[in-house]
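Supplementary Methods, section 5.1.

A reviewer requested that the exact input to the structure prediction be made available. We therefore reproduce it here, unchanged from the version used in the analyses.
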Amino acid sequence: MVLRCLAAASVFVALGNALLPVQAVPSLDEPTLQRGESVNYLCERGERLEATYYALSDQSLAFVRLRLPDGRQLTLPQIASASGARFSADSDVTWWIKGNSGSLQQRNAQGAWSVTLKDCDSVA
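The structure derived from this sequence is encoded token-by-token as follows.
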């Protein structure tokens, strides 16, 4: 009887350990976040925009963190672009840069895209 109880207890301990959550072990292959440069832009009508660019070390993801003239902060992933770099969540806002200039496009209430900040040139 005692042996049966010990055997049953051993099974419960083994099962209990199998059900414990597995702890993540850091891997050398895990990508790390790399902060790129922060760029200030001065736009056509005197508006200022700040963009900070980021990427994962394995280049699987790049994104920008924007601080708009109205104080809003947006984070937009980089998406495919034929020319320059384009960042957009494709819902409401797109930041498009080429060289040292950029433009911000936003959807209006009817869903049409319009350029709301244009001729934004990087400034020191």
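The chain has one helix and eight strands. These observations are discussed further in the main text.
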